[in-house]
Amino acid sequence: MPEYHHQIRSTYIKKLKLHGIKPHLLIMGTLLMIFSVATLFGIEFFIDQIKFSDATYQMENQEPVPFTMPLSGKGESEFVTVEFDMHLPYIFPKEFRIVPDDCIEVLVINGRTVHDDRIPYCPHYNIGEVYDLHTYIHSGKNHIQVVVKDVLGDVGLKVLPEYEKSWPVFAAKAPLYLLSLFAITIILP
After folding, report:
1. In 38-186, which ranges are E strands?
2. Confidence check: pLDDT of 9 > 60
3. What ranges do the domains of the chain cover?
4. N or C: which end of the chain has fewer CB within 10 A?
């Protein structure tokens, strides 16, 4: 039986060599590709671990009401204070899209007021605005407070990570993309 397996293996190696493929490079390239893809999936899973907790909103002269992010509800006062904790993984984006319904009056992160020329911010469309928050946030728990001005009846707030322009996320992925390209060049003759 071992003799039969040896014949199959040597026949396979001869066919690879006939096509100009070196078997040890094929094995090494395949292993590098598997490692790169598995690591990229692991990073994607790790990055997507942004969680929100302990979210409350409070209308003027009323008690705080717990909710689950994103906030969407009926506004009963002009100003609504929204507070929540945002838990970030070790690798996280530095930019976030904040979509208020209707306006952002104040944004405070970890006890520090965000100074940005676009705050107060009242969007004409419900697409929000992208803010670079890297100097205010860190991995782990971040406490966020937003004062939302309600103009038209409904009140809401979404906070969405912006991955496309985020340098830490790109920096984590770039070597793996290069490793994948290297693996492909090894595999192909």
Report:
1. 51-59, 65-66, 71-74, 79-88, 95-101, 103-109, 112-113, 129-132, 140-149, 154-162
2. no
3. 2-47+169-187, 51-166
4. N
E strand intervals along 125-187? 129-132, 140-149, 154-162
Phi, psi (5° rounding) for residue 27?
-65, -45
Residue 45 above 70 pLDDT?
no
Mean pLDDT of the chain: 78
Confidence of residue 5 (pLDDT cuts 50, 70, 90): low
Which class is 51-166 in CATH? Answer: mainly beta
Residue type present at position 94: K
Spatial contact of 98 and 117, defined as CB atoms under 8 Å apart? no
pTM over the 0.70 mark: no
